[in-house]
Amino acid sequence: MAAKSNGPIGEHSGRVLAGPTNPMVTPLLTDLYQFTMAYAYWKAGKHNERAVFDLYFRKNPFGGEYTIFAGLEECIRFIANFKLSEDEIDFVRESLSPSCEDGFYDYLRGVDCSGVEVYAITEGSVVFPKVPLLRVEGPVAVVQLLETPFLNLINYASLVSTNAARHRFVAGESKMLLEFGLRRAQGPDGGIGASKYCYMGGFHATSNVAAGKLFGIPLRGTHSHAFVSSFMSPDEIIDKSLRSSDSQSTCEDFVSLAQTWLSKIQWSNSLNGTFGETNQSELAAFTSYALAFPDNFLALVDTYDVMRSGIPNYCAVALALNDLGYKAAGIRLDSGDLAYLSCEARKIFHTIEKEFGVPGFGKTNITASNDLNEETLDALNKQGHEVDSFGIGTYVVTCYAQAALGCVFKLVEINNQPRIKLSEDVTKVSIPCKKRSYRLYGKEGYPLVDIMTGENEPPPKVGERILCRHPFNESKRAYVVPQRVEELMKCFWSGSPGGIREDLPPLKDIRDRCITQLRKMRPDHMRRLNPTPYKVSVSAKLYEFIHFLWLNEAPVGELQ
Predict the structure, then answer these.
(1) Is 448 within 8 Å of 440 (Cβ atoms)?
(2) HEC sequence for 260-311
């Protein structure tokens, strides 16, 4: 199924941008204090003051040294349709103090995002702490109303995309990853979002039909243990006929053909009597499923006994399909020692290919599931396995290893005056003023450092040495001579009619960008254990300004 475009550019360009995927994402999807602050701004006559906010995070998740930025499209769709209805305004009135003046609600009726500008890193990019993901500029009261929904739309999306990318990295590029987490996700929105952002992070397909329809994500899925155990015997199969793949002939009794092949396997010289009696109800289930889907027969082989029943029954049905010109899709293992079982199954498939002259049978696809996560994937790699595809659910969609990313939304400038948020915890000190961000690349093509500069500073130039400083640690500094310079932030919402802004790329392009960027990262930044921290810096001029403002805003103590 082809990926769908994210839609047209926007209302002010003559085309309408659709609203967020989830209809619950409305102006009321916010914290109450956003409306109380909006009223206080309005009451003080400050509501139209031009403010600049940065949205960023302070620490990479999952003990890693990189994050995937996701959720931008949903944010742009949200502001493109931002308008409070009369019903919503009435509810805000009921929720605020009776002392709030009616003029504020008249003001809310006219609020939209036509005066807002959003600059952002492109969705699907590899990003790092402290570097703004979004810079939001506009009337302070309006931008304040965007804070909570923006954080809600970006926090989970970026966390899941990063989690998916980490699973992708551990599994290896040659393996197919299937997202099976809908039933374990935190509600419908968690399930839909997880499917979208797992795909963005590098998964190949999902079991989630709704996500397939909404986002064009390829779908995968066959049957469960219930289907297998619902059969009692081959006698239950009424229509036993199956036309060949070229429609030139018909097998009138496919059940008997599968039984014949089972007998051949059981008496095979090469297998040396490996297989005895198998579970006939399982064989009936496999045969029935093959009759329903002869061109996509993938069997769950662990309902009764993988090696004694599931594998021989699968092979019998697959070989019967082969007689009619069909190629079986493979098996799924959902329990047991996945490394051992996959290796043993692969040996049997190779033996059957050689014994019966069935080209490609040795390469039969083996899918594994059963509560897989980064640790189990890593363990399987160390043990050695023959799994081709992994079905991963609970641990990827719930982000079991870390509950939240922790993005924040901080005021950095108002009325062209830089602002700073101080804290005794230096990691929580914000970096003031409107900034530009760049990624500097070294001779080997890897990113070396991200650097933030003041908006009006000249940009770094290729081949010219630049001093990169840690924002808060005086002794951490280094000169860099970049071989390539990439400016990170682009305008994705220009507010005013006719403003130039970036198009929203299709989901498939975002996914490709994510995969490409991860391949460009230095391996020591990517490793699971003890990765090398990626350097995030500020220019010498911005460093001096941060510390000037810090000293200027911090109260001076007095010793008695």
Answers:
(1) yes
(2) HHHHHHHCCCCCCCCCCCCCHHHHHHHHHHHHHCCCCCEEECCCCCHHHHHH
Work out the number of other CB atoms within 10 angstroms of the CB of residue 187.
8
Domains annotated on the chain, with CATH: 4-165+401-553 (3.20.140.10), 166-397 (3.20.20.70)
Q: Within a 10 A sphere around the Cβ of 428, how many other Cβ atoms?
A: 12
In order, the DSSP letters of 60-71 are -GGG-S-EE---
H or E, element range at 492: strand 489-493
What lies within 8 Å, CB to CB, of 418 at 6+ separation is: 412, 432, 433, 434, 545, 549
8 A C-beta contact, residue 312 and residue 320:
no
Q: 394 in the Ramachandran plot: left (φ > 0), alpha (ψ -120 to 50) or beta?
A: alpha
C-beta atoms surrounding 43 within 10 Å: 13
Q: Looking at residue 58, what DSSP letter applies?
A: S
The pLDDT tens digits for 478-502 are 999 999 999 999 999 998 767 789 9
pTM score, two decimals? 0.94
**Residues 304-338 pLDDT 10s:** 999 999 999 999 999 999 999 999 999 999 999 99
